## 1
Amino acid sequence: MKKIYFLSLVLSFTVCFAQTNLKKADALFKNYSYADASKAYEEILQNVKNPSAQTLKNAADSYYFISDSRNALKWYGKLYEAQGNNLTDIYYLRYIQSMKAVMDYDEANRITKEYLDKKGDKNEINKYLAQKKQTDSLSKSKSLYEIKDMDINTGKSDFGATFFQDKVVFTSARDTTKFSEKLYTWNNQPFLNLYVAERNAADGSLFNETVFLPNVMTKYHEATATFDSTGKTIYYSTNIVKNNKLVVDETKTNNFQIIKGSIVDNKLENPQKVFFNSDDYSVGHPSLSEDGQWLFFASDMPGGYGETDLYVVKIAADGTMSSPKNLGPKINTIGNDLFPFFSKDVLYFSSDGHYGLGDLDVYESKFLSDGSFSNPRNLGAPINSNKDDFAFIIDRTGHFGYMSSNREGGKGDDDIYSFTKGDPVCNQTISGMAIDHKSKLPLTDVVIMGYNSFSDVLGETKTNYEGKYALIVPCGKIVKMMAAKPNYSSDEKTVETTLENGGEIPNINFELSNYDDLVVKKKGVEKVDVKPIYFDYDKYDITPLAIEELAKVVFIMQKFPNIRIKIESHTDSRGKDIYNLKLSDNRAKSTRDYLISQNIDASRIESAIGYGESRLINKCKNGVKCTEEEHLLNRRSDFIIIQK
């Protein structure tokens, strides 16, 4: 029942032809008899080698409008082969949506990128990237929603459930009316009518369905109703009819209108057209806010962003309505934006113009304090699928509701599904970047881990090519953050998250040191890169200058926990050999004791030995005259890495 969603409705009677030719197929298409037109074009195109672009469009659209995505894709593909980048926006959209409808997501994404590159609109590219990232993220997490098909569905179209007191009103094409012999030539189904059903509060099941407000029914469409909180005022969609005849515009199209009325003793009284109805365009899918002060609806009126847009009017206490306001480009797209539902400052709606899972998807957008709406968020599976998913409503508890879909596995064209929604998990994002300690340049592929107080892993991610990361962790936790990269030191931070769901704690940054920047290598031996450790003359106490250099040893041993070292201390040749040997050994052991005092495990220091003047590294042995700088080279402590 796709085109009924889109509000561009034409009612006509089936035209039958003994033989099929292109003119007759075009007549069926122009007459909106898409079910018959698709068959006619299929027969013709078997024998036409070079069909025109318009014929390919009509053939593809005939299938698209009756939700036969596989065959629609075949002819949109032929059209794309013929026209390439000359495809218009709307045909790119239909081509891409048909791919998604048959689960060909990789090709759909490729064509989407091609289309966006052709447009060259950076804002639209960023929107695509953000929405794709969000849907990809949803696919990796457990959904809050569980859905269930309903026994009330039939082999025909059933959709658009809405709450009415303790019951549910819905739209259906089931054959239970006195007008059931009339068929809507679009898809050869009966016309739509409103039904009411009892609702089992325990499981949401619907039963005992009957025609709703029998005096409302006509031989055409009545669909998608909404009610005020008392259940005494109704707004609903219907064809524009005058004197029991359809009113058509210049293109022979009969449009939809919204009717407001009062419900008294199960009858509609005082029906009135809303002032923004027009014979020249459609308005429909009305939805009242809970307080009755706002009426949202869909329309293809001039001045919109796409095929159908969402609008809102404010309703004063005396019933006066403001002029319709378009909800703007955050909500509306070049495609179809429909089925609004507003609850607790959240607008739910369906769209095939945002970058979702395929065809109509359900989105949510928060109403902000400045009067605008937030960027729409896809609700993900199982609410959304590769088919049309729409008419989402949720009760005041936020835990139960209904939606409609023509997905595989249902009973008919469209089916009503009930759903339950679990309580959302409160998460926050910790973000920042990792850089090289020495160069201050960003580091890619740094592993960022988050742990709780029991060292359980809360989350893990990696930095991107810009050195940036974003880690999702639970609210209200003390999170130990650790950053690590092979051949680099690790870095740690402690962050306390708040209770704001969806909040972000930015600028938690890390500096990592490259192992190669912390050591020197000579003849296959690696040593910690430190300046000479200075001691006062004839002493082995650790001096402030020595502490500065030993901090480098502590740092590398803390950041590389597998490192083991041995300490070797040396003196110059001045003084007696035995004295120098004892002095250097005391200095080596004093150095070891200092490292242990800085919480370095003693087992990681294999030995601390003084060698006096026995291992000079230059000519300055006993009796050789040398400068102070030359003697300094021999007066050294080495921290030799024996394991890393």
## 2
Amino acid sequence: MFLITLAEKGGGTEQREYHKNEVTIGRLPGNDIILAKGNVSKYHSRIVAKDGKFIVVDMKSTNGTFVNGKKIAAPQVLKPTDQVSIGDYILNVEPLEEGPAMTRAGAPEEEGYDEGEEEPYPEEEEQYAEEEEPYEEEEAPAPAPVAGRMPASMASAMAKNKKKVDPRIERYTRLQKEIHDRLIEYLDLRRMDMDRLGDDELWRRTEKAIRDIIDQMEADGELPEDVDREELLTDVINEALGLGPLEAFLASDEISEIMVNHANQIYIERKGKLTLAEKTFSSNQAVLGVIERIVAPIGRRIDESSPLVDARLKDGSRVNAIIPPLALKGPCITIRKFKKDSLKIQDLVKYKTLTAQMAEFLEMCVKAKRNIVISGGTGSGKTTTLNIISSFIPDGERIITVEDAAELQLPQDHWVQLESRPANLEGKGSITIRDLVKNCLRMRPDRIVVGECRSGETLDMLQAMNTGHDGSLTTLHANTPRDAIARLETMVLMSGMELPVKAIREQIASAVHMIVQQTRFSDGTRKINYVTEVSGMEVDIVTLQDIFYFKQDGFTEDHKVRGRFVASGFVPKFYDELQRKGIPVNMSIFRED
């Protein structure tokens, strides 16, 4: 129930009563409050009554919604004294009568929000209410269905599939959430002027506030004796201002990948093995907060209208995030960590990803300007290998790299790094990999390195390889060298050019010289299991010749892959050319073992 005072800047003031739980505001008829001015969007914002509180939600308006002069980035609880600015209008919202507000289904809500806390979208919270209580052992009765809500049958199935959580972890998570809730009341973090304070001062004030809260809880007997105070403080401050439990995982050099399935389930990859982490988030809302802290600094956003995003951390780690309604169990984050110290070819030899002879051969391929495609499955180490062999490019050459998310770190000085850009909220402004590949041809490159070919840019890449840009490198997803050729054909067809298959294969055969096939085995090890030369065409088929390959002999007693690298004995064509030119080459690396 609302009492809204509406004032136009430089104009009159009026009061309106609304006996409902939601009021919409916009320029078009159909809104509860029609503000017919050009700086007001068609459907600008709405105000929702929830548990005796009022929440203002911006509806992705062009000019934004402001509370007390500050543009809101998410739904926000209003105080009676708050002024909401929409275009040339100022609104003040007060309760019309006492008592809890009713939902659109007509039932009082059970939970409210701390004043000053930015709220999730009301529909999202209703839709995923079952996920907000992860430790409830007894299944709650299914609520009456409302518009936009998860079907009761799906919610029930999800509740039954929840695994029981370790009581110790459950208790710690509840304690962490309790301190976080008290922190919001104590410090009102969400309304603090972070730009004015600066990061160091913000962290200092927050740390002091958490210590005060923990001291008070200890004095009141609310803090279990077996809880480490400093660990608890670190976990709460990381969730409030940092990346929550991800901070510890990102700091560990042993962890290569982090996968947040939902608030209470985080998997990590350590030394090639996936394990379930003990640490969890206190709630799905905390996961959303971490995602927002990741994407906001790079100008990206994630919300109902754009529920998935690719981003990267300050250290270069690659991040993918997806939220409800696409992710049914709650916000999901996948982080591919960026190594602080770039690996060298010697590291791959040490880890038995390849042999010293194979490393020597790949170095010669790069220096001899062979066009190389690195092929493999997800997580097989393609980008790492691309980064390492790109370091063999001579210093005097101009290198242009094109990536979706910048990951390559080359040691050369003459290096131009390009990164694609997704579309904005209006679906405009997108700059694709294909656009960048076309553009870099006008930038006088000696070498073009494309992080990954996924679509029509493959045609442009092949044309570049065929028109004087020898020594180019890229990666793609495929399971064998032969599959890589088929994948190249498919991606060329995705460019929209209606080319005969034979013409595409001829283009591939003349453009690609080498395929480096990489595989992640069941024991977590990564190996280059084929180094294959594209030797030409026979009739309509692209011919391939293995130079090196990994011969697997089974598994050891501790389930490690057992096998050896084998030289096929075949000498690639370009080695003969190098010899004719008088360039010294080591032919002994091709001798059969």
## 3
Amino acid sequence: MKKYLLILAFLVTYISFSQEDAWVYFNDKPNSAAFFSNPLSELSQRALDRRTAQNIDLVINDAPLEATYVSQITAATGITVMAKSKWLNCLHIRGSITDIQSLLAFPFVNHVHFADDSLNNKMAVQPTIVPVNKQLDVQVNFNYGTSANQIQMLNGHLLHQANYTGTGKIIAVLDAGFPNVNTIAPFQRLRDNNQILGGYDYVNQSTNFYSGFDHGTMVLSTMGGYVDGQLIGTAPDAKYYLYITEDVASENPVEESNWVEAAEQADRVGVDIITTSLGYFAFDNANYGHTYSDMTGNSAFASQGANIAFTKGIIVLASAGNEGNTFEPHVGVPAEANNVLAIGAVKADRIYASFSSVGPSFDGRIKPDVMAQGQSSILSNTSGSIVTASGTSFSCPIMAGMLACLWQAVPSLTNQQLIIAYKQSCDRFLNPDNQYGYGIPDFQLALTIANLSSEEHKKENFMVYPNPTTNTVSISFPNNYTNATVYLYNTLGQILLEKTISTSVSNVSLETLNSGVYFYKIVNNSITQSGKIIKE
């Protein structure tokens, strides 16, 4: 009996004092009115301009966390605050199970969610997640050297020749460290032109972001590196923020919270594009890890944050992952998110790189989204030498830089409209698969499509995509319109479907229809638009 009592005592002690990771979610933001009356207290003018340009309203998740809530949680017994998220209105905390559960006594706490899902009450209330110009006559001829293939594969050199090199666009890089970016020669051009705007180390809570693991330095070089005749990045004239969110010494859910906190800061300072060569599936504590069944687009914490970033008008890209040859080959977090472009890897000859993670997502969505050269990519190491390295870590920023160039060319398009045009340029757009996604984009073709979209946008037309399609079409609204009714007809003129749509619910299911040609009509108070849809 004494033996069993000792075991019981040990279990009680373990449950009471073992350190667990969790998120504590708040009920509200009682002082949000102050933010809405003065948005510049939280967001830069550039962040507000991005929203205005894309007809995006300020919402409650733009407001900062309630400071008194944060201070009370910070002062709570046994609790360490690891990270914060205004978008998800929560804190990432660490403490014993008992101390974490005691936070429920605060009237402003909605619920706590443990990283170890076995500790959660499955009936607990979950937080509500907000759903989601003119060409210049200057020609640039870069001497790409051995980096030519990874740009020319995408026809990116043609955008560069039209002087679309990322000027005016800001890219945030979320990674594991950026040592020597402030000293080595491949970044001299960025430094001379003041293109590195700032950054932060969220792992060590430090303003020294020229530190950490060398991975981020290599990643940045594929976009911003410049060594004539050896390496030209895909966006040599873009500007950059550098954020360290990854702790290479461990694998813990706090890194997802760091990621979201950095994404919120990226939004705050007005970035256009977030690129991240990080991914999450398993953690050091097996109880914290994700499973394939979690890959549903908006379940994991970082995926939720990435989706919200998209609603702010930001384009988010993430490496698909390098697990294609492993027992769990699927695209991970946050690349699996609904509104994140998951970038896979091909070899120099455009053939799938066997290490590149594959789709589909658990709920059947196409992943990866697109591909770029990720095997034997040309980049700079931390000593400034131009070398080759492989991984979706490099195909992702190569693509991010080219998207900055494309957006520079058609700045009037929203992030959603730009992505539509970009995907339609891909070589497998009509026949996507689980290895290549929609395939390899052609940025010269994407520019042509985007220019057409820009003209349609100016005419205040609805955009219906993808077309041809399989089971669903999405309808993008022109500026200043929020509601419409869509009618679908067969070739005999019979109405098969009538649905009211809005800017928040704009998908139309065609699952019950056979393959063939159908006609649509979209009716708004001041617009009537007709066309045809091909269902494959």
## 4
Amino acid sequence: MTDTTPLADGFATVDRATWRELVAAALAKSRGPVAAEDAERLLATPTDDGYSVHGLYTAADLAGWQPPADPGAQDFIRGSRGADASVDWDVRQRHWLSADTPAAVTDDLANGVTSIWLTDGDPARAAAVLGGIDLAAVPVVMEGFRGGTALARTLLAAGPDLNPASSLGLDPLGLVAATRRGGDVDDALDLAGEAQEAGILALTVDGSVYHDAGASFAEELGATTAAGLAALRLLIDSGIPADRAAALMEFRWVVTDDQFASIAKLRAARVMWNRVLDLAGVSSAQGQRQHATTSIAMLTARDPWVNLVRNCVAAFAGGVGGAAAVTVEPYSLATGEVDEFARRMARNTQLLLLQESHVGFVADPAGGSYYVENRTRQLAEAGWAWLQDIEAAGGMRSALDSGLVAKRLDRTWRLRADRTAHRAAPITGVSEFPDHVRRPGDAPDAWQPPGGGLPRRRYAQAFESLRDRADAATPPPTVTLLTLGPLARHAARETYAQNLFAAGGIGTTSVPYQPGESVALPPGGAVVCVCGTDGDYAELIDDVAAAAVAAGAVRVLVAGKPGERAEQDAAAGVTGHLHVGCDAERLLDQTLTDLEVPA
């Protein structure tokens, strides 16, 4: 037996009060005197779900919230698989049906993919794909908001021996949410009965419909669980016993590069669904079967290589969160081009996590973390509150028809869009550290979501629209940076300005300003941004602004917060400032307009 030594041995005990004092002292170095009792509040980060993420979590934060010790035990917070079962998740690859899909599916299955997800398309093409798969060994999940019942029938007709983890992928409420069509509900219920006879899953309650419309983590939890509850009621009302109805369902959840929130969301989803089944009178202990898919909303068309990192973090969260199956969306999806390399990177991301990092070796590795357990509880409570609001409105169908869901998600989207515009929610490669490569013309859109219902959005879309606008302009839009003093004095703000303008596809040309001399602006440099120190601004802003206007500048900006110089800058003709926290999206849009770049 190996002897173990507690890691805290030899260290002095630090209580919460001492920790607060240390934090207050650290914060005081940058913001002035800070009271110890204010330390935690100053470190707290609010979320869209009404709670804050704090800087410290201890056992005291988990009062009344103690998860069961073993995986597979109700309320399934640690997962639905028992301790003796394999904890590796199913590597599920997504394919949009096309003429090339059969060959692509064959390649995936030969190189580590363990199940297939077929999205939309012609049933004849689906039949061609299914004909090349060992359906008894390989689970196949269908999904088609443009004709899901036809694709479902294709799977049922493919053979009598289908893998039990296969699914028709029907989602009656998701169809209404995505397209406002509800006519397939009766067909879906008939097919659910056939799926039960075939021994496969019938329904996939798809949370991506709500996530892509702008839902927060708790809003996705509440809306998706409400959709699942509505679907469960439909199955029970059609004559299927509650226990069997619950066993016909799978849930699809979206995981993002917000690693811990994604892990907690999957755990909270199982707790919430267990409560629903308990209230529905489901007698047999069943955990929620979960399929985690990486977020399309977080993908960028600009500098898409960063998506590889985002996808890796999200896939890690899906596996650690306890999903039975994980899908990594192609890193290049937002660019409109999904090729063999993109598919290979999608599957290899998971294979590296499973076979080299052994992330699937432990069930619920995040369990026991004060932070994760607390976040799980907070998300479950916030998600349950939203579920209750939906139920109070008459259930998910009524909440969709009345616009309750759309209005709620739109409000949350606007909050996130505002943070993105101010770069408080930075997007690497787009709003921060932008890729400078120009890409004239519109890229084709390989991701063709259904229309008519909730919108589909990406976080980077506003900044990327600015880039598309700039890249279509000839000659390329350029801002003149008038630098004050030696390099050591203006370099920091010059670099800041260069990167901010690059986020809008706008190039820069630096021109040193010599006091008392006229300014020669380069061609197209009708917008000027002055870069220097606060001391230089106080001394020279009147002269430099006047010189810029005399040279033909239509707008004069200053890099840095105005502070006490606001009135002086305005009197000199300065009409805007670049600084941390400014509305970068609006500033870039106005700059392109000033440079006469068509919208």
